[in-house]
Each structure stands twice: as C-alpha cells, then as structure tokens.
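Sequence only, no structure available. Ideas?
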Amino acid sequence: MASKKSSMSNNKASKSSQENGRVGGGMTKSAVERAKKSTNTEALKQEVASELGIQPGKNATAAENGRVGGEMTKKLYEKGKNSK
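Reply:
I predicted one. Tokens follow.
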C-alpha cells in the first residue's frame, strides 16, 4: 500500500510540474517576443558570441551555436520581463 501511495504522489508532482512548465514557458515566450520587437537580434548575437569567445555560423559546432542562442534568449527574456 505504501508504494501505491508513494507512486500516486509522484504522479501528482509530475503533472503539477508539467502544468507549471507550460505556464512558465508561455510567460517566457511573451517576454522574449516583447524584447525582440525593440532589439537588433543580429547585433545581440554578435555581442553574446563575443562575450563567449565564439564565432557563430557554419563553422561553429551545434553546441557553440546553441550556447549563443541560449544566452540570447536569457538576455531577451530579462529585457522583456523588465519592460512590461
């Protein structure tokens, strides 16, 4: 019986996490979209790549290009979150 209760509580936690992820993802997306409207994304890409010491493009690895994109998203999110 204890194992059933344990697994049931795990299912509740998982569902709740999934629901929170969807809500958080929507808020993140709207903040990023808001920031993109007032940002030169090409300049931001070059700035972030320079900070990371990466030359983005065809000759960079997928991981390097992904790091640049991830950092861009973080910056856009912060800018969008602060410009409500």
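Confidence is low (pLDDT under 50) at residues 3-23.
Hope that gets you unstuck.
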